[in-house]
Amino acid sequence: MVEEFVPVQELGKSLKEVPKNYIAPEDKIPVVNEPGKSVPVVDLCDFDLSPKQHERVVHEIATASSEWGFFQVINHGIDVAKPQRASMDFFELPKEEKLKYAAKEYGFKSDGYGSKISNADDAVLLWRDYLFLCTSPKRNLDNWPTQPPEYKEAMSGLADDFLMLAKKVLGFLSEGVDLPTDYFEKCFGIPNQSILTNYYPGCPEPDKVLGFMPHSDFGGLTLLLQDGVPGLQVLKNNTWVVVEPIPGAITINISDLLELMSNGRYRSVIHRVQVNASRPRMSIACNYSCSFDSGVAPAPELIDEEHPQLYKPVNFGDYVQAVVKKGPTGKSYMLINHDSKPEYMLFQKH
């Protein structure tokens, strides 16, 4: 069970200084925010792809996933405006209404509204509130907010659309390493899918806090809707690169399980979220993973003399619990070939 909490959104309305338990460790890594130096953008052409266009999409997604671990897709055929509006309307409700849906457990084990995600006593608190929804294999709409009235329909529809898009992207990723189109989808089996809506209020001292600590995602694939406010940053060549919001685009990143399955061909990279002083920011993230009792291992087809096995098999449920216990910081991993550890995995934990 979790203790009662004061939403960060409420703190931001009255405080002039940030409480000590929200102050993040100092980070001296430089930030790059320049046009043309953000993550790659892939045009999906509403999936009306000629053979040549299909080949282009596979190449662009595979290259972006190998070099960046992140990319944005446009012309994906998903209506993003309705769920974004419904989600913002939820966070604009009175505090008392939102607290009716307070999460009952840490670690995203149940639907609910909250702020703290780790049960670690020494975890730095994040400058954000969230609403978490389990969307597959089970979807209990009775636990979802009844206000605004269109919320359930909008978010359930987004969950279905994200599920479809994730499977198509997994197909492109499978082909990108010369595996059958359905290879990675079969590895995940019946997917474990969830949606996490993050609300980052304006902060009186934004340079002292983080909306999300530097971390890699522990699932398989993450699909993200950003609003028009920058905040997401990706670690590339020891530099924080701002992921510029593109209206209507969906940001996709490789998560830990897919890096493990691909034996390191695709990269699950460190990223974080910064906040600002005046403008709230909201994002909607979808996590596509396998069932918690699944064993996950590198694809045997991707292991040979030139590509030795980099990771040991893991139980996904045990892996998630380890992340929740210490909080999602740094890169938590199960390398077995330490001499082959890539530079980007040597990033120091905060």
Q: SSE layout and pairings?
A:
Blueprint (H helix, E strand, L loop, with lengths): L7 H7 L16 E2 L8 E3 L7 H17 L2 E5 L6 H11 L3 H5 L12 E3 L14 E8 L14 H26 L6 H6 L3 E9 L11 E4 L5 E6 L5 E5 L2 E4 L7 E5 L1 H6 L9 E3 L7 E9 L5 E2 L17 E2 H11 L24
Parallel strand pairs: 1-10, 2-3
Antiparallel strand pairs: 3-11, 4-5, 5-6, 6-13, 7-12, 8-11, 8-13, 9-10, 9-12, 14-15
Could you characterize what this model shows?
This protein is of the alpha+beta class. Helices cover 25% and strands 20% of the residues. The protein has helices at 8-14, 51-67, 81-91, 95-99, 151-176, 183-188, 256-261, 316-326, and strands spanning 31-32, 41-43, 70-74, 112-114, 129-136, 192-200, 212-215, 221-226, 232-236, 239-242, 250-254, 271-273, 281-289, 295-296, 314-315. An eight-stranded mixed sheet has the order 2-3-11-8-13-6-5-4. The chain has a five-stranded mixed sheet with strand order 1-10-9-12-7, with no helix packed on it. The chain has a two-stranded antiparallel ribbon with strand order 14-15. Strand 2 (41-43), helix 2 (51-67) and strand 3 form a beta-alpha-beta unit. Helix 2 packs across helix 5. It is globular, with a radius of gyration of 19 Å. It starts with 7 loop residues before the first helix and ends in a 24-residue tail after the last helix. 43% of the residues are buried. Residues 338-350 have low confidence and may be disordered.
Molecular shape: globular
Number of strands: 15
Strand content: 15-25%
* Helix/strand structural class: alpha+beta
**Major sheet description:** 8 strands, mixed
Question: In percent, how helical is the residue content?
Answer: 25-40%
- Quickly count the helices: 8
Say what oligomer this is.
Answer: single chain
Helix-strand topology string: HEEHEHHEEHHEEEEEEHEEEEH
The largest beta-sheet arranges its strands as 2-3-11-8-13-6-5-4
Rg on CA atoms, Å: 19 Å
